[in-house]
Amino acid sequence: MNRHAYIAELTQLLYYMAPWDRDAAVKKYTALLERSENPEALMDELGSPMKLAVTLSRGYEPSDPNAPNPEADAPEAAEDAAPAPAEEQADVPKKAPAEPGLAPEEAPEILVEAEVEPEAEVEPEAEVGEPEAEVGEPSEDAPDAEQAPAEPEPMAEGQAPEAEQAPAEDSTPEEPEAASAPEPEAELEVQVAEISSDEAAGEVSPAKESAPEAAPPAQEQPSAPGRKLPAGEEEIFSEIFTAATQAQTAVAVGSGSGRPRPRPAILVLYIIACVVLGVPATLILVAVTVLIFAIALAAMAFGIYIFTFFGAAGFPGLGNLLVILGLGILAVTAAAGIVWLGVWFMRTAAVGFPQFLVRFGREYGYTQEGSL
Amino acid sequence: MKTANKVFLIVIACLLILGALSLAVGIMLGGSVGALFTAARDAIVGFLDSFFTFSL
Question: B37 to chain A: nearest residue by CA?
Fold first, then answer.
């Protein structure tokens, strides 16, 4: 599977997400794969698209669609985030020495690390933000260039130069992390990290509170992508479906924009047209259906009646017997076929037409804006 | 198409063929379709006559 197929399949599997979250996730993984020198290895690290979708689905909560665009606010956010909280600053140096020298291929490992480590809520932001800063996403790295003037950032396809420049950033490792904190991709991975931490901690307490207790189980987990997934595909699909249902319900209840809004004028006109034209047409179809069944009943009665002449005194000989038998079989068989036709007509026309009218009215009588 | 529908159509087709063959062979052996229809009509008319002329 190449990266295009991988992203396409992942996009389909992330249908449970809100559109803005899905776009952010797809952009993120597309960028990761595009920047990777070895996309196959990266895809192996990430696991199959279904596995990645299930991982993201666990505990996914839709973000606010009306929130300001973090990318547009990135420079301001970077400036605001420069004086980072003390705990965030304290956590950063733990990861900083190893991360600047990482090659782009090691990005998934960091990603996986962020997924499986149940640390405090602020830590995954800093950790997750780093690989993207290293890999060099253009919109993310703009504030980096401002804050680290000694390193002119190559804006596109800058994997190797950035990898070379990375060791020089050891003196100021906090700045890119603080700058990348408010990005949507970072938030997405923070969600994943939080979910993972919840699962690792048995969902006993929030991530921040359980950080010291939950840390040992995280160390026990393998660094490979992996949490154990259900063996059967049905379980995986069931899990995705459950997450999708919850996410869609949350979006519909939270924003209220997922419900279609009626178009009163169109609906009134449509209902009038349905009453004037649709009801008579439906009655005609019902009458035709009744007629078909009546014909079938008559054919059945005729066939049975013909059989009463079998062996009668007025019809001697084998020829008359075969004629009676043949006509009776033909009549009964025709009756059965006509009944079958009547059932099909009833389901398709007499019942299907009113259903079509209702479906058509729902489709065009309501606006679908904001619906999922 | 569902399997049940296929089976139904096959059975109907077989019965139609069987009925047509029986009718054809019966006619060849001297059977009379007209006499049968006439007898059936007479029986129906007789039944209706007796029904509508029924009186206590």
Answer: A306
